[in-house]
Structure to design on (262 residues):
């Protein structure tokens, strides 16, 4: 019992230190292998299904924003949710894509397929990848954390379980209170490809008191270029999510709880 309480307190203190570090973005991954879409409500999704394959410029996401350029491919073993078209950076002439948002936003999600360590996602306070770099997400850490059950293309048909050495997972990015981004930059530092589909965006910051628990498995907190993996403490993910999303006020409340119990 003492060991459990010590581990629980250690987990609480770890979350408290993250809150005090003023994390700007919380990252979670899909709650189950094979999930290809977001469960966040009041969000808009862009599927690429209505675009022809090839290079496109100034593509409008109705009510959400504009992509400066896109390289659209038809479904193959490396991507395409439900075996439909998807976008890729790092192949052909498109090394990066910038999504400029009509309104500063607090949530973004995407189905990340055929994942590799060269994929990078940046969240900026200004348009066109300018202003403050609020969070830079690199996929190398996530590659180490995802269970092997996420490996391989999950779509039925001829692509099922192809590319079995790379992960396929839906990733969520949640801004903490007081944080929002105006542009998102997708880039790939090699020719390996940054494959993605079902881009999902919401203006409102996620609130665990009204939206419910954070969906999926909490993976890390990001502040600028600093990524802090979050080990799973003996508390439910929902509680960890409330503490992180609550920021310093939640941290202060947590500290009082620990002192009282001590």
């Amino acid at each position: 019992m003492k060991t459990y309480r010590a581990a629980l307190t250690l987990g609480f203190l770890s979350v408290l230190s993250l809150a005090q570090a003023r994390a700007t973005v919380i990252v979670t991954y899909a709650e189950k292998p094979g999930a290809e879409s977001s469960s966040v409500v009041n969000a808009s999704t862009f599927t690429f299904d209505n675009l022809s394959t090839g290079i496109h410029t100034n593509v409008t996401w109705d009510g959400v924003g504009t992509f400066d350029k896109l390289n659209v491919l038809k479904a193959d073993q490396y991507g395409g949710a439900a075996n439909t078209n998807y976008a890729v950076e790092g192949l052909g002439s498109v090394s990066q894509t910038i999504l400029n948002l009509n309104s500063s936003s607090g949530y973004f999600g995407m189905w990340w397929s055929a994942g590799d360590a060269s994929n990078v996602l940046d969240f900026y306070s200004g348009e066109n990848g300018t202003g403050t770099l609020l969070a830079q997400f690199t996929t190398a850490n996530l590659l180490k954390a995802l269970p092997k059950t996420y490996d391989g293309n999950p779509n039925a048909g001829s692509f099922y379980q192809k590319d079995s050495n790379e992960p396929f997972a839906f990733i969520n990015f949640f801004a903490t209170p007081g944080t929002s981004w105006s542009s998102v930059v997708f880039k790939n530092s090699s020719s390996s490809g940054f494959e993605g589909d079902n881009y999902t965006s919401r203006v409102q910051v996620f609130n665990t008191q009204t939206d419910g628990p954070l969906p999926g498995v909490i993976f890390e907190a990001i502040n600028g270029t600093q990524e802090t993996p979050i080990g799973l403490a003996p508390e439910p993910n929902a509680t960890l999510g409330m503490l992180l999303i609550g920021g310093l006020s939640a941290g202060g409340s947590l500290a009082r709880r620990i002192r009282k119990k001590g």
